[in-house]
User: What shape does this take?
Amino acid sequence: MKKVLRRERSGYILGLILCLIGLILLAVALWKLWPHVSVSQNALTELWSYLWKEQLELALGIELRLIYLTVLGILMFFSGAVMVALSQKWFTLSGEAILLTCPYCKNQWKTSRAKGWAECPHCRQFIQPQVAKRS
Ligand SMILES: [Zn+2]
Assistant: This one.
């Protein structure tokens, strides 16, 4: 259970980080665009042409067009959001198919989640089931 939980959490955190980076990239793009858009008469066409024109100088002499930055930001934000959604789904799915063993009759049965106490479906005893296998 711990292993599944950790994987789930790392996916969630990774998704959040991706969302955050995406938002930062979009904020940088917006910050670069804003002075041009606010003074422009024809804001949308100006914005579009400026997105393709403007080169952003990164470290190591790498230049990045603003349109790539914007697209990258949007992509990262959405993939991060999907990852967060999926990691939560994995978590609920991970609770499925736990094999429990009855300490009295040694019969096994599958359950949706681990329980501290359960009624054995074979001998009808109220028991503390042992977890045989998690998948
Ligand atoms: Zn039993």
